[in-house]
Amino acid sequence: MKSPLEILQTRFGYGSFRLQQESIIQSVLQGKDTFALMPTGGGKSLCYQIPALIFEGLTVVISPLIALMKDQVDALRLNGVPAAFLNSTQSSSEQDAIIARVQSGELKLLYLAPESSFFRRIGSFKVSLIAIDEAHCISHWGHDFRPEYLMLAQLKRTMPNVPVIALTATADRVTQKDIIQKLELNNPAVFVSSFNRANIRYTVEQKKKSFEKLLGFLQTRRDDSGIIYCLSRTSTESLAADLAREGFNVLPYHAGMDKDQRAKHQEMFLRDQVKIMVATIAFGMGIDKSNVRYVVHMDLPKNIESYYQETGRAGRDGLESEALLYYTYADVSKMKKFVEIEGNNAQTEIYLKKLNQMAAYGDLVTCRRKYLLNYFDEPAPDHCGNCDICLTQVEREDGTVLAQKLLSAVTRLQERFGAGYVIDFLRGSHSGKIMDDHKALKTFGVGADVSKDQWNAIVRDLLAQGYLAKSEGTYPVLKLTARSQAALFGRERVMLVSSKEKRETVMHEPAADHEGPLFQLLKKLRWTLAEEENVAAYIVLSDASLKELAT
Ligand code: ADP
Ligand code: MG
Fold first, then answer.
1. Is residue 45 in contact with ligand 1, taking CB distance under 6 Å?
2. What is the per-residue pLDDT across 184-234, written as a single tens digit (0 to 9) for each?
3. Does ipTM top 0.95?
4. pTM exceeding the 0.95 threshold for the entire prediction
5. Which atom of ligand 1 is nearest to the CA of 286?
6. Which helix (H) or strand (E) holds 356?
């Protein structure tokens, strides 16, 4: 008899188990009722497929998605696993043929829809295991209740000695309990895997000039596979067309397209013949593509469950991947209007609550991963280190002395100069006639040990914290504030972003290409401005850039 690990390696071609797969399989093999909560893409299927190959009799798999059964069965057959499905799309002679294979003991796995009439006869077959996939469908508390699932409680009553494994990717604590109770599981072993997808980096950007931002994002990822979700069918088509015009290998996908074309687009994506799928949420259910490197949302999903599922399609191979959301509150208002039209009832209330929780994700100033995990009742540390918030909200250290140098330079220069000049003065740059007049001032050159970039970052930081202000107009100059005095006279300790981390801000800057230097520079500048809209006044062209501009 082969061990589960041997089967994993020889039949399925994987090196090692993931998450809690192995413990779950052991529990099932010991004949225990088992409840397994594992994120999408976590590998739930193997938790019953491997036991199915070890047990003597038949493993019955209940799945709500008739459309996906065929794919799953085909995939198993490719691995040489004798599997079949029974559902209403088959003729009665096809069904009879499959039942004959069950009777002969040839089949190891049989997939069924929960409403299948086969259940009436199930007692007469040698069943070793019942696997209930998408088990949350039995609970009113889950997000996808299906009344047919309620019938499944019968299974445990008719076959009390056959172990049942219930599997789901979405169930909070209340739903978990409800599933276990409704299925009448007998003292089940419960496995809850973490929902954390550590290899996915979560980023939110303002939905403003989102097409330009998207181009910048895609520029460095031309060879990667990705999914871009849009709310409407028409926008998937127009965005796909716009991206194609920019030279991207892209196709649209939505439920309004004809069936053959949809299947073709999906197939091409799976085979890497097309890199980008611009799709509505109709795309992705059951899509098993391991190397999706990014999932972009052009519009706000309607709740966190959907967002988590959709972004979960990235990085199934465990490699670094990105989830990028373009967020604006206008999307929330728009979606609220939809439901308001539909009227007011309990359903609407839940919808609105979930929509607000989704919107709150876009507005976060704390770790996004923590928020997602807490949403699913999973504890998480305050900082994950792999979301935009954690990567940009950085360590602060005492910068009082640096702040004082800068503020006294502004004072000495009588609040008449912009950041560029103040920094040159601090660094002791000798160029120019005006500087000659200022050389004799006391703070001239006291900041020579700090780079220009660093001084610029310090100015931004002081502005953001109100230690400095800037005037309006074409040539803004640095001004002192009440808080400047507190810092200058040492009444307040100034905490600055530590210099080590200043450069970690995520930037999606277009990669260099064959366009001319002037174009390049302007493009670069545009991206810098787009990234830092609030501090546009402090983007100073470097001498090198100016020279480049002149050529
Ligand atoms: P789920 O049902 O939990 O969403 P699946 O069972 O469909 O996930 O598995 C997702 C993908 O991960 C599949 O491609 C599957 O073959 C793969 N997979 C499962 N277990 C492993 C493993 N131990 N090592 C590598 N890949 C795995
Ligand atoms: Mg699954």
1. yes
2. 999 999 998 888 998 999 999 999 999 999 999 999 899 999 999 999 999
3. yes
4. no
5. 7
6. helix 346-363
